Amino acid sequence: MLSRARIILRLLTVFFCVVRAVAANSDTVPPTPTAIAARVDHHYNALHSLRVNFVQQYDGMGMHRRESGTLLLAKPGRMRWTYAEPAGKLFILDGHNAYFYAPGQTEVQRVPAKKLDDMRSPLRFLLGHTEIARELSNLTVSPLVPNQTANSGAAPPQVFELSGTPKGMEQRVASFRLTVSASGAILGIRIEETDGAITDFTLTGEEQNVPTTSGDFVFKAPPGTSIVTGLPPI
Question: What is the pLDDT of residue 68?
Fold first, then answer.
């Protein structure tokens, strides 16, 4: 007859086997689009500002363009794209209007935020109380295998692609894809327009809750330029 100690030991063994099986099974169950969207929500709703490096590539209308710089975001509703390549290019959203300036131009384009239809504008959902599932329709998610350094011996981090269409931009945007880390940080953005143009953003070096001032988001027209109401450039 088994002693009470052996019975307890056997039950504990069975229990831990079940726990391991459940854990292993949970690792194989792919997360849902809403679950990944919730991770993005949680990541950005906890921030009041961030700074991140970006590389922006555009292919369309017979053009290929690669630009880079630093993006500064601050709630509510403010962003500043400072370009290092090409140097001097600037895009500011002050919460009410967006301003576009490129070196050599004599006019600065000003567009009301509510009419903004620029390919950077989907990032505005990071500037308020983020609810990705409400911002994007037809959500899907798929796991990605990121590049891994040869012979590193380390398991690659989990990365997911969250796809959908920004609501209100269906006539222009065919597909909007976010490359998202397991923690919910956005690593990349791919925007495919209905005319075949593709814009890619790669985001690196995210700094959370960086100090900002209201002056960071005030546009000052360079000497010799005038501000006109117009449409954002490509």
Answer: 97
Cis peptide before 146 (omega within 30 of 0): no
Task: Work out the mean pLDDT of the chain and round it to a whole number.
Answer: 81
Report yes or no: 116 and 92 within 8 Å, Cβ to Cβ.
Answer: no
Q: How far does the chain reach from its first CA to its final CA, in angstroms?
A: 82
How many DSSP H helices and E strands does the chain contain? 3, 12
Residue that the structure tokens 């500037």 belong to: 127
Given a contact cutoff of 8 angstroms between Cβ atoms, the answer to whether 207 and 51 are in contact is yes
**Is residue 203 classed as helix, strand or coil in its secondary structure?**
strand
For residues 126, 127, 131, 136, the Cα torsion angle rounded to the nearest 10 degrees is -60
Per-residue tokens: 69 = 């710089």
Q: What is the pTM of this model?
A: 0.77
CA-nearest of 65, 76, 77 to 233 is: 65
Strands 136-144 and 159-166: antiparallel
Between CA 135 and CA 140 the distance in angstroms is: 13
**Hey, what are 116's tokens?**
């903004």
Contacts with 18 (C-beta within 8 Å, 6 or more apart), sequence order: none
Q: pLDDT digits over 125-172, tens only?
A: 666 666 888 888 899 999 986 554 445 555 557 899 999 988 877 888
The three-point CA angle 35-37-39 to 5° equals: 75
